[in-house]
Amino acid sequence: MQPRIWDVGAALVAVLSLIRIGRMLPGQVCELDFSHYYVSSRLLLDGQSPYAAPMAPLYEEYGFVFYKEIPTATNPPLLLWLFAPFALLPPPAAFGAWRRYRRRAWESFYC
Predict the structure, then answer these.
(1) Looking at the structure, do residues 6 and 37 belong to the same domain, yes or no?
(2) Is residue 86 a contact partner of residue 94, using CB atoms and an 8 Å limit?
(3) Where is pLDDT greater, at 30 or 13?
(4) What domain range includes position 57?
(5) Tens-digit pLDDT profile for residues 48-68
Protein backbone atom coordinates (compact mmCIF):
# COMPACT_ATOMS: atom_id res chain seq x y z
CA MET A 1 0.00 0.00 0.00
CA GLN A 2 2.90 2.36 0.71
CA PRO A 3 4.22 2.50 -2.91
CA ARG A 4 0.73 3.44 -4.18
CA ILE A 5 0.70 6.52 -1.95
CA TRP A 6 4.05 7.60 -3.39
CA ASP A 7 2.69 7.16 -6.92
CA VAL A 8 -0.35 9.30 -6.15
CA GLY A 9 1.85 11.91 -4.47
CA ALA A 10 4.25 12.03 -7.41
CA ALA A 11 1.36 12.34 -9.87
CA LEU A 12 -0.15 15.15 -7.81
CA VAL A 13 3.17 17.04 -7.72
CA ALA A 14 3.54 16.60 -11.50
CA VAL A 15 0.03 17.89 -12.19
CA LEU A 16 0.45 20.88 -9.88
CA SER A 17 3.80 21.70 -11.50
CA LEU A 18 2.25 21.61 -14.97
CA ILE A 19 -0.57 23.88 -13.84
CA ARG A 20 1.95 26.34 -12.39
CA ILE A 21 4.01 26.34 -15.59
CA GLY A 22 0.84 26.76 -17.66
CA ARG A 23 -0.11 29.82 -15.64
CA MET A 24 3.40 31.29 -15.83
CA LEU A 25 4.07 31.00 -19.57
CA PRO A 26 1.42 33.40 -20.89
CA GLY A 27 2.83 36.14 -18.69
CA GLN A 28 6.33 35.62 -20.05
CA VAL A 29 5.27 36.96 -23.42
CA CYS A 30 5.07 40.39 -21.76
CA GLU A 31 8.37 40.20 -19.90
CA LEU A 32 11.99 40.65 -20.92
CA ASP A 33 13.85 39.29 -23.05
CA PHE A 34 11.25 38.36 -25.62
CA SER A 35 9.41 41.69 -25.47
CA HIS A 36 12.65 43.63 -25.85
CA TYR A 37 13.71 41.60 -28.91
CA TYR A 38 10.21 41.90 -30.36
CA VAL A 39 9.84 45.67 -29.99
CA SER A 40 13.42 46.36 -31.11
CA SER A 41 12.97 44.24 -34.23
CA ARG A 42 9.56 45.77 -34.87
CA LEU A 43 11.12 49.26 -34.84
CA LEU A 44 13.81 48.07 -37.23
CA LEU A 45 11.21 46.58 -39.59
CA ASP A 46 9.22 49.82 -39.47
CA GLY A 47 12.28 51.78 -40.62
CA GLN A 48 12.95 53.45 -37.27
CA SER A 49 16.18 53.40 -35.31
CA PRO A 50 15.68 51.03 -32.37
CA TYR A 51 18.58 52.80 -30.65
CA ALA A 52 16.96 56.25 -30.78
CA ALA A 53 13.19 55.71 -30.98
CA PRO A 54 11.26 55.56 -27.69
CA MET A 55 10.10 52.02 -27.02
CA ALA A 56 7.47 52.79 -24.38
CA PRO A 57 4.62 53.44 -26.86
CA LEU A 58 5.17 50.10 -28.60
CA TYR A 59 5.45 48.26 -25.30
CA GLU A 60 2.07 49.73 -24.37
CA GLU A 61 0.55 48.98 -27.79
CA TYR A 62 1.54 45.32 -27.60
CA GLY A 63 0.70 44.93 -23.90
CA PHE A 64 4.28 44.37 -22.79
CA VAL A 65 5.78 45.44 -19.48
CA PHE A 66 8.07 48.44 -20.07
CA TYR A 67 11.22 48.81 -18.01
CA LYS A 68 12.39 52.41 -17.67
CA GLU A 69 15.94 51.18 -17.12
CA ILE A 70 16.07 50.00 -20.76
CA PRO A 71 14.37 52.74 -22.81
CA THR A 72 15.93 51.84 -26.17
CA ALA A 73 17.34 48.78 -27.94
CA THR A 74 20.51 47.32 -26.49
CA ASN A 75 21.08 44.35 -28.78
CA PRO A 76 23.32 44.39 -31.87
CA PRO A 77 21.67 44.90 -35.27
CA LEU A 78 22.42 41.32 -36.35
CA LEU A 79 20.34 39.94 -33.47
CA LEU A 80 17.48 42.29 -34.34
CA TRP A 81 17.52 41.14 -37.96
CA LEU A 82 17.66 37.49 -36.90
CA PHE A 83 14.64 38.07 -34.66
CA ALA A 84 12.77 40.04 -37.35
CA PRO A 85 10.80 37.04 -38.73
CA PHE A 86 9.27 36.58 -35.27
CA ALA A 87 8.41 40.30 -35.10
CA LEU A 88 6.32 39.94 -38.25
CA LEU A 89 3.87 37.79 -36.26
CA PRO A 90 1.45 39.01 -33.57
CA PRO A 91 3.10 38.80 -30.11
CA PRO A 92 1.38 35.59 -28.87
CA ALA A 93 2.16 33.70 -32.10
CA ALA A 94 5.70 35.10 -32.15
CA PHE A 95 6.24 34.00 -28.55
CA GLY A 96 5.04 30.48 -29.33
CA ALA A 97 7.30 30.26 -32.38
CA TRP A 98 10.22 31.68 -30.38
CA ARG A 99 9.73 29.10 -27.61
CA ARG A 100 9.63 26.25 -30.14
CA TYR A 101 12.76 27.56 -31.85
CA ARG A 102 14.65 27.86 -28.55
CA ARG A 103 13.57 24.39 -27.43
CA ARG A 104 14.74 22.83 -30.69
CA ALA A 105 18.01 24.73 -30.53
CA TRP A 106 18.64 23.42 -27.01
CA GLU A 107 17.66 19.89 -28.00
CA SER A 108 20.02 19.89 -30.97
CA PHE A 109 22.82 21.27 -28.81
CA TYR A 110 22.45 18.82 -25.92
CA CYS A 111 21.19 15.69 -27.67
Answers:
(1) no
(2) yes
(3) 13
(4) 31-110
(5) 999 999 999 999 998 888 888
